[in-house]
Design brief:
single chain, 417 residues, 7-stranded antiparallel beta sheet, 5-stranded antiparallel beta sheet, 52% strand, elongated
Length: 417
């Protein structure tokens, strides 16, 4: 069960499949509306079918994404995200037990007790319980199951009375504590599982500075020491390095084309598997060849750990302009000759320190037009025909010189007074 407070677009689901079953049975996903704590009607357009061993569903022991061809717009409300495997083979999803432990109270411990009778299991996690009309805490069920799709016979994973669904301990469980002042009162425990299946609404960005560095929490499971992207041999080579990793599933590489819109949404380019847990330096790279000439792109990383609890952007975006090669391009100035001002244009493929100067035929610097670190892009600068002191330079031939890294490019222009 999940709640939506504002209208949003559901793009699919992320599901943690295990290695216990790779049966190529049909997998169906769908969304139900809620009625009194149970599914009621299927949301139009939410019913889709895929299969294990198809597309990205070949993955196991990690979350894989099942996306709709046509995303669904959901209004505010409560919904149920359902997944079913059609066939005799069981649906083998990852299950998380750490948040679904329960204390079993009011349990008879006489020798002839019957398991499941008189027991009231209560979820330990406060997020999974609510107060009833009497002010007593009871389980708030976020997880249901049915044994046959569309049967309508939904069963709670953690009912307030009786055995939980798919328990990882029996109803009696383990004796956790005996009060020395009341030896007849014992605390029993049991528990169920959280099915690792969740709705996917796409990358989330918030706030006025949503495109700036998005900080991970302090317990981010990687220590990133380097991240960059460079034009190389007609493609963009994305490179990064980690100093250490803990429980690291891997990295999503995200990309956007900002040529015409600096606020363009991010798209997922690819997933690169991490090294799990290691204190040894690790190097990664990915080559992006899906490029358009003279377009400017930004790249960033989003790290995900193996249990899916941590997922956040871990890098500043890096920017490149694809110009078909990795060289700096210096354009002829225009107009030339000129008697007022002239435009000097160049294109940077990678972020570099740039020095643009005007020199005379004797090699003397007449004017420094630019001296700065510049992002990959195209640039236009103007020379007004004056020197460093603002005095008009005399008529004659001048050289404009662009120094960028190890590249030095020059052009010739004529000033006419």
């Amino acid at each position: 069960k999940f709640n939506i407070l504002n209208k949003d677009t559901l793009r699919g689901f992320e599901t943690y499949f295990t290695q216990l079953s790779f049966a190529p049975d049909p997998i169906q996903i769908l969304v139900w509306t809620d009625a009194g704590g149970k599914p009621q009607d299927i949301v139009v357009g939410s019913h889709a079918q895929t299969s294990r061993m198809y597309g990205n569903l070949t993955g196991a022991e990690r979350y894989v994404r099942i996306q709709y061809n046509n995303p669904i717009e959901l209004q505010p409300g409560t919904y149920w995200a359902a997944i079913a495997q059609l066939g005799e083979t069981g649906l083998e999803l990852g299950g998380k037990a750490s948040r679904m432990g329960m204390r079993t109270i009011n349990l008879s411990i006489t020798p002839d007790y019957i398991l499941g009778t008189a027991g009231n299991p209560l979820n330990l996690d406060k997020n999974f319980r609510v107060k009833n009309s009497l002010g007593e805490y009871v389980n708030s069920n976020y997880f249901l199951y049915e044994n046959v799709l569309f049967s309508g016979s939904w069963v709670q994973f953690t009912p307030p009375i009786g055995n939980p669904g798919y328990p990882h301990l029996d109803h009696v469980g383990m004796v956790r504590y005996i009060n020395p002042n009341d030896p007849s009162t014992q605390t029993f425990s049991t528990g169920s599982w959280i099915p690792m299946h969740r709705p996917y609404f796409g990358p989330r960005e918030y706030g006025m500075d949503k495109d700036a560095y998005q900080w991970c929490s302090d317990d981010v499971p990687i220590e990133l020491s380097y991240f960059n992207a460079e034009i190389r041999k007609g493609a963009v080579d994305i490179m990064w390095e980690t100093a250490s990793e803990t429980n690291n599933l891997g990295f999503y590489i995200e990309k956007r084309d900002i040529t015409s819109n600096i606020n363009q949404n991010w798209d997922e380019l690819n997933f690169v598997t991490g090294k799990g847990t290691t204190t040894i330096k690790q190097r990664y790279n990915y080559v992006d060849k899906d490029l358009v000439l003279n377009h400017t792109y930004e790249y960033r990383l989003r790290q995900v750990d193996k249990d899916g609890l941590q997922s956040c952007s871990t890098t500043d975006p890096v920017r490149v302009t694809y110009i078909g090669n990795d060289k700096v391009i210096l354009m002829p100035n225009s107009p030339n000759p000129f008697n007022g001002s002239t435009r000097i244009s160049f294109i940077l493929a990678n972020k570099q320190h740039v020095n643009l100067e005007v020199i005379d035929v004797f090699g003397n610097v007449v004017k420094t037009i630019a001296n700065a670190d510049l992002e990959p892009s195209s640039y236009d600068y103007y020379w007004e025909g004056n020197d460093e002191n603002g005095n008009f330079a005399p008529s004659g031939t001048y050289i404009y010189r662009l120094t960028s890294g190890s590249d030095i490019l020059t052009g010739k222009m004529t000033l006419v007074r």
